[in-house]
């Protein structure tokens, strides 16, 4: 039962343009949402998070949007850089501190 | 502050054998979680330990087990290995608190290959 879904396995974007990564979830009881970035042969690293009581959080080039009514989360990267090429996982946390991850979206930023 | 350390980084086993993986969390973190990553399946949750007690458990067979020691270090064990157990096993630590920005910090993983 996949409670967090990333329906796009891959995405290619030109350098300097916006990258939009999407994520859907099914459990309305999740209280925190996170994005992680993963390079090959490394563990995922935390990128940005958002509480369920907010609808937007921004950190430099990265912005996460939360639409609770649609149970939808998105990550915007502006402008995209070649170093952003990686696999991005979205995750959701329930009140029992259990985290659920999506299957990942592989982002390629073309120079 | 040292990060999450996982050992070994790579290992090869044959079907039927068993394996033990180790994880040392960030100092002060009391929660350790284990995930299995396979192509196309994302990160599948195995279990979480907090203060030496299993607090959450995913949908994996009983061949997968774990434990946590008093210093918060954790081990996971897989018995009677199957080919499908080949994966990257990731350990993550966190403060374990339920409120606020409780973020998982991952180790680099242990790559297990079962032949």
Termini separation of chain A (Å)? Answer: 38 Å
Main sheet: strands, sense, barrel of chain A: 6 strands, mixed
* Oligomer kind: heterodimer
Cα gyration radius of chain B (Å): 14 Å
State the separation between the terminal residues of chain B, measured CA to CA: 37 Å
Overall, the morphology of chain B is: globular
Mean pLDDT of chain A: 94
Low-confidence stretches of chain A: none
Would you count the extended β strands of chain A for me? 11
Provide a count of the helices of chain A.
0
Whole-number average pLDDT of chain B? 91
User: Which protein chains are joined by the largest interface, and how many residues does each one contribute?
Assistant: A-B, 25 and 30 residues
Number of helices of chain B: 0
Tell me roughly what share of residues is in helical segments of chain A.
under 10%
- Annotation, overall tally of beta strands of chain B: 11
Taking Cα atoms only, what radius of gyration of chain A do you get, to the nearest Å? 13 Å
> Residue ranges of chain B: pLDDT <50 for 5 or more in a row?
none
Please give a quick description of this structure.
In chain A, the strands form 2 sheets. In chain A, strands 2, 4, 5, 9, 10 and 11 form a 6-stranded mixed sheet that branches. A 5-stranded antiparallel sheet of chain A has the order 1-3-8-7-6, with no helix packed on it.
Characterization of this structure:
The complex is a heterodimer of chains A (111) and B (115). Chain A has strands at 4-5, 10-14, 19-25, 32-38, 45-51, 56-59, 62-67, 72-77, 86-93, 99-101, 105-110. Chain A has 111 residues and is an all-beta fold. In chain A, the strands form 2 sheets. In chain A, strands 2, 4, 5, 9, 10 and 11 form a 6-stranded mixed β-sheet that branches. Chain A has a 5-stranded antiparallel β-sheet with strand order 1-3-8-7-6, with no helix packed on it. Chain A starts with a strand and ends with a strand. The model of chain A has no long low-confidence stretch (mean pLDDT 94). Chain B has no helices and 11 strands. In chain B, strands 2, 4, 5, 6, 9, 10 and 11 form a 7-stranded mixed β-sheet that branches. Helices cover 0% and strands 52% of the residues of chain B. The termini of chain B are far apart. The A-B interface holds A 6, 9, 32, 34, 36, 41-46, 49, 89, 91, 93, 95-104 and B 4, 6, 31, 33, 35, 40-45, 48, 50, 55-56, 90, 92, 94, 96-98, 101-109.
